[in-house]
Amino acid sequence: MDKAQQDALKKAAGIEAAKLIDNGMIAGLGTGSTVRFLVDELGRRVKEEGLEFTGVTTSRRTQEQAEGYGIRIVNIDDVDHIDVTIDGADEVDKNFNGIKGGGAALLWEKIVATNSNKIVWIVDESKVVDTIGKFPLPVEVIPFGAGQVVRRFEAKGYKPVLRLDADGKPVRTDENNYVVDLHLERIEHPEDLAEDLITTVGVVEHGLFLNMVDQVIVGDPNGPRVLTNANK
């Protein structure tokens, strides 16, 4: 699939997901290429349909895009609930376990998600897999002692790689932390791995989002299809 086809599927999923936002809602707005299409569509609805809602964003990038359309964005601590959060995912399997954090926003994304009444992911069909793990699993770590955390992960066979930017410097999250990507190929026991990662001192958060999502909207050549998590 070339990038133009992939973008068309992402856009279709984003437009479909935008229908979930109604007047008066508090909506969590995720981060990434698919969410960009969602925010474009919400911006169009604000302008052309008079849609009025409040957004809580998972990154500064999304905040800037949304505010450019005149969408009201507030701090997560200024709301008592979030009706629905719409976000992308890097992988999602048949058990509705996902990997997120390719855009280095996993910590804010997880905080917004866990404070949401409903979670919806929008993905193109390439992100739907049998077993998660082919996409490197992002782990957010504080800079102090990050090298020690990497060594600990190496000893466990997690194949960690510190994420670097184009200049060869460590990528910084919105909280100024580092991201270590684990090249695992297959994650057979995601709950055990999640527990091991979050209890590692120096780790702030990991990109395993396990059985959290309510619906996944998949951009498909035949039109967006909705997968519903029966366990939620």
Word description of this protein:
It contains six helices and 14 strands. The chain has 232 residues and is α/β, with parallel strands linked by helices. It has two domains: 3-128 and 210-221, 3-Layer(aba) Sandwich (Rossmann fold), CATH 3.40.50; 137-205, 2-Layer Sandwich (Alpha-Beta Plaits), CATH 3.30.70. Strand 5 (91-92) and strand 6 form a beta hairpin. The chain starts with a helix and ends with a strand. 44% of the residues are buried. Pathway: Carbohydrate degradation; pentose phosphate pathway; D-ribose 5-phosphate from D-ribulose 5-phosphate (non-oxidative stage): step 1/1. Its EC number is 5.3.1.6.
Secondary structure topology:
Elements: H1 3-18, E1 26-29, H2 33-49, E2 54-57, H3 60-68, E3 72-73, E4 84-87, E5 91-92, E6 97-99, H4 106-114, E7 119-124, E8 137-141, H5 146-155, E9 160-162, E10 178-182, H6 190-198, E11 203-206, E12 208-210, E13 215-219, E14 225-228
Parallel strand pairs: 1-2, 1-4, 2-3, 4-7, 7-13
Antiparallel strand pairs: 5-6, 6-12, 8-10, 8-11, 9-10, 13-14
Helix pairs in contact: 1-2
